[in-house]
Write a structure and sequence with these properties.
By secondary structure, this protein is of the alpha+beta class. It has helices at about 25-35, 50-60, 80, 85-90, 100-115, 120-135, 145-150, 150-160, 170-185, 190-205, 210-215, 220-225, 235-265, 270-275, 285-295, 330-335, 370-385; strands spanning about 35-40, 45-50, 65, 140-145, 300-305, 310, 315-320, 325-330, 390-400, 410-415, 420, 425. The relative contact order is 0.17. The protein starts with about 20 loop residues before the first helix and ends with a strand. α6 packs antiparallel against α8, α9 (about 170-185) crosses α10 (about 190-205) and α11 (about 210-215) crosses α12 (about 220-225). It contains 17 helices and 12 strands. A hairpin with a 6-residue loop joins β1 (about 35-40) and β2. Strands 1-2-8-5-3 form a 5-stranded mixed β-sheet, covered by helices on one side. Strands 4-10-9 form a 3-stranded antiparallel β-sheet. It has a single domain, classed as Cytochrome P450 (Cytochrome p450, Orthogonal Bundle). Helices cover about 45% and strands about 10% of the residues. The structure holds protoporphyrin IX containing FE. Protoporphyrin IX containing FE (HEM) binds near residues 59, 95 and 247.
Length: about 425
């Protein structure tokens, strides 16, 4: 984009290649000039919000629903939609798409099942997986995404579930297809068919006797989702599989981009910034700021339950109609100067609390946020401890083509050899 070619909000979509490398300039214009915008291009008509205050208020407004599994299929006729009923049926069981009491009960059930997976228990397990992957890379040049950032979260979440970590390649492929569905605003029927096939394969994998046996042996989360009871309530088989698929999808699709975006952002920074990731005193601030700045999940969606008028932060009165999709751009909220000082700067020692909206807010706050913080901390600290001079090779850098899951599909990096001029020593 240039000054001569201003952003055209009507052209904006989650798959427009021109917005993907730098959506933040577009967001800045929208926060200033169009903080609440009706777009015909997004799902055939949706309200888009860009300011922190609006995103936070609407995310926690009970007049909006999370029942939005079928929103990406709105462009299809009803008979066409029926072709994908089994796939949508899996997503509709996800607690992420539930409201009210149903959501509370299902979230409680998953919380209870997850209880044994404390930070202390997971620390050595995540470290082992990180070491396993980093032992295999060639420091003279490797693809950070395919060799590290992609397999790592798939292996971590497979390990928590108690299913074979060697399945990480398939888990990543299935997740990619589902992420394309939920992150995009332009999905073809051909892609829907691929996503349907991937969803069926993922479900078959999680329901297989091999996975059940492995999870039972390891007392993994998949097994605990089957066996945990809360106030006499337990998940039926289809719910167990659906919630396990949700956890895999939600974790894999996002942590990988956070790691890639962070390495890319840190590349332009002085070495002392990376050192903040290596000290127990400073790492928490640094990871929170990377979460704010490198937001991989750029928006959160809702659907209006019933007609009402919403008064936005700037006093605009927005007539919401029942069933309209509402898109809350948390990546824009995270850079709102009305909320954050030096909002457009990556300030790795930004004081806590860092009130970014990367994990959402309210009852749907991300379930996996402690696991994300822990995995990212271990991954980045291990990477820079082993390769303090890690550099991005900018000529080989490819963006994922959907804004919902913002990051690189490949990012070539190398550990630069530094020559100490005084001694002639290389390190
Ligand atoms: C960088 C990584 C991640 C980011 C940025 C992220 C972001 C988010 C956001 C913004 C939401 C709120 C959605 C809404 O309000 O509708 C959410 C929900 C959720 N996330 Fe994450 N997530 C990440 C990783 C994970 C991981 C690792 C897991 C699980 C292992 C996970 C599981 C979930 C679940 C189950 C929900 C639904 C919660 C509910 O509706 O109660 N996420 N995530």
């Amino acid at each position: 984009m240039t000054v001569e070619q201003p952003f055209l909000p009507a052209e904006f979509s989650h798959n427009s290649a021109e917005y993907i490398p730098d959506p933040f300039s577009f967001y800045a214009e929208m926060r200033a000039g169009n903080p609440a915008y009706w777009s015909e291009r997004i799902f055939g008509g949706a309200w888009l919000f860009f300011r922190y205050e609006d995103c936070l208020r609407l995310m926690t407004d009970e007049r909006l629903s999370n029942s939005r599994a079928a929103v990406p299929l709105r462009f299809l006729s009803e008979p066409q939609q029926r072709e994908f009923a089994d796939m949508i049926g899996v997503y509709e069981r996800w607690l992420a798409f539930h409201d009210g009491r149903e959501h509370t009960m299902n979230r409680r059930q998953v919380n209870r099942s997850y209880a044994p997976f404390s930070e202390a228990i997971l620390e050595p397990r995540i470290q082992n997986l990180v070491d396993l992957l980093l032992d295999r890379v060639d420091p003279d040049g490797f693809d950070l995404m395919s060799e590290f950032a992609f397999p790592l979260p798939a292996m971590v979440i497979a390990d928590v579930l108690g299913v074979p970590t060697e399945a990480h390649t398939e888990l990543t492929r299935w997740t990619d297809d589902i992420a394309h569905l939920f992150g995009s605003t332009q999905v073809s029927v051909e892609h829907l068919r691929r996503t349907q096939a991937s969803t069926r394969e993922l479900v078959a994998f999680l329901a297989s006797p091999e996975c059940a046996a492995a999870a039972a042996r390891q007392k993994g989360l998949l097994h605990r989702l089957h066996t945990t009871e809360v106030h006499g309530h337990h998940f039926v088989e289809d719910d167990v599989i659906a919630q396990a698929a949700l956890l895999l999808f939600a974790g894999i699709a996002s942590i990988r981009y956070l790691i890639g975006n962070s390495v890319h952002a840190l590349d332009a920074r002085p070495a002392r910034d990376r050192e903040l990731l290596l000290s127990a005193d400073t790492v928490e601030c640094a990871v929170e700021e990377l979460l704010r700045w490198c937001t991989p999940v750029q928006f959160v969606g809702r659907v209006v339950k019933e007609d009402f008028t919403f008064t936005s932060s700037g006093g605009l009165r927005i007539p919401f109609s029942s069933q309209s999709p509402v898109m809350l751009y948390v990546a824009s909220a995270n850079r709102d100067p009305d909320k954050f000082s030096r909002a457009d700067e990556l300030v790795l020692d930004r004081p806590l609390p860092n009130e970014h909206l990367t994990f959402g807010a309210g009852r749907h706050l991300c379930f996996g946020d402690p696991l994300v913080r822990q995995t990212t901390r271990i991954a980045l600290a291990s990477l820079y401890r082993r390769m303090p001079n890690l550099r991005v090779l900018p000529q080989i850098l490819n963006w994922n083509n959907n804004l919902g899951f913002h990051g690189f599909t490949s990012l070539r990096v190398a550990a630069e050899t530094v020559t100490d001029e005084a001694s002639g020593r290389t390190e």
